[in-house]
Amino acid sequence: MAVTTGSHPFGLWVVTVSWQGNAVYRVHFGRTGPAGPVHPLIRRYLMGKVVDLTGIASPADEGSGMSTAIYRAVRKIGYGETATYGEIAEMVGTSPRAVGQAMARNPTPLVIPCHRIVSKHGLGGFTPPLEIKRDLLAMERSVCHGGKGSV
Contact 109/128 with Cβ under 8 angstroms? Predict the structure, then answer.
């Protein structure tokens, strides 16, 4: 089976996903994307459905090392929830800066939900434009709180 690459809209953005079976290899946000199917669970997520993506494999959380430990910890943050860079750092025994650096290198956002990692004083950063992080968090909160979520 070959790796499939397709895209799905999310607001004004297009999310491009490279995947095969139950593994997602890359997720990218842009203004355009190739035609083709997207992993069904990611498509449902982008449509505003509560979806558990922890069963999708990502190469980013395979192996060992600090970044892998960080990615595994981030995957435990549930839909509609957030954690701070410091909280993740404490969980894995590193610094908040190391967590931020790992999030910036995350090849599979959404699968490893780096948008759910915030600073203790605000949203923090996001490698794609910050408005995507805000929109993803707002969507999750809205779904979880019956339309009452805001970021």
Answer: yes
What pTM, to 2 d.p., does this model score?
0.91
Task: Catalogue all structural domains in the chain, each as residue range(s) with its CATH number.
Answer: 4-46 (no CATH), 60-144 (1.10.10.10)
Taking CA 87 as the corner, what is the angle to CA 119 and CA 30, rounded to the nearest 5 degrees? 50
Buried b (16+ CB within 10 A) or exposed e, 110-120: bbbbbbbbbee
pLDDT in tens, 4-27: 999 999 999 999 999 999 999 999
Which positions are annotated as active-site residues? 114
Q: Do 72 and 61 touch, CB atoms closer than 8 A?
A: yes
Residues 81-129: pLDDT tens digits? Answer: 999 999 999 999 999 999 999 999 999 999 999 999 999 988 887 777 8
CA distances from 6 to 14, 25, 62, 82 (A): 10, 12, 24, 28
How many other β-carbons are positioned within 10 Å of the β-carbon of residue 21? 11
